[in-house]
Design brief:
Blueprint lengths: L2 H18 L1 H33 L6 H4 L8 H11 L6 H14 L3 E2 L3 E7 L4 E12 L1 H14 L3 E9 L8 E11 L5 H4 L2
Helix pairs in contact: 5-6
Length: about 190
């Protein structure tokens, strides 16, 4: 095509778009994209049907079920105590939290610590409340890293406070509870 022909087509298309208006253009664009998506989905369904027709007959469901040995109550209890931390390492876990906060660029003031013991379950809890200052993203990264580093901890509270809307740094309060037990798991006590 010659250059004047392309320019004439472009001018006609521009005049047509101005005549019908922007909302109509958007509606036509949405209609065309919807039709294309419907066609693609229909084609994928037809392709899946062809592949299914060529596939081997399904195996009986009973053959696919793998039965795990039944766990006893004492096995479950041993697993429970096996994932708990030990009270003698609680301070090391707190030190780890301070290191993680520093790596995330957070200012961590003195925290509050509270321990308790439940006689019925023989489980100790060590509650750590940390006041943090930093960016929103850094606080969330710290919270997630803390939960990965201390698998026997739960995140009980995470609250944010900002003095002004424009402040990049905010104050956060994070409360974790460590679940601890002196009970030695059965697998660890076996020779």
């Amino acid at each position: 095509m010659s250059a004047w022909r392309i320019d004439a087509l472009r001018l006609r298309a521009e005049l047509l778009l101005r005549r019908i208006g922007a909302p109509a253009c958007v509606a036509v664009l949405l209609l065309v994209s919807g039709l294309l998506a419907w066609g693609w989905a229909w084609q994928q369904r037809a392709l899946a049907a062809q592949l299914e027709a060529r596939a081997l007959p399904p195996a009986p469901v009973a053959a696919m079920v793998v039965r795990a040995p039944a766990a006893t109550a004492s096995d479950n209890l041993a697993l429970f105590y096996g994932v708990l931390g030990q009270p003698r390492y609680a301070e090391q876990q707190v030190r780890l939290l301070f290191d993680l906060a520093a790596k995330n660029g957070l200012v961590l003031a003195q925290g509050e610590y509270k321990s308790s013991y439940d006689k019925a379950s023989r489980v100790s809890t060590y509650q750590v409340t940390l006041p943090l200052k930093g960016s929103y993203q850094s606080v969330w990264h710290f919270a997630l890293q803390a939960l990965r580093a201390v698998p026997f901890a739960s995140l009980d509270e995470l609250s944010f406070r900002r003095e002004q809307v424009a402040d990049a740094r905010l104050e956060a309060r994070l409360r974790l509870t460590f679940y601890l037990s002196d009970a030695v798991p059965a697998a660890a006590s076996a020779p």
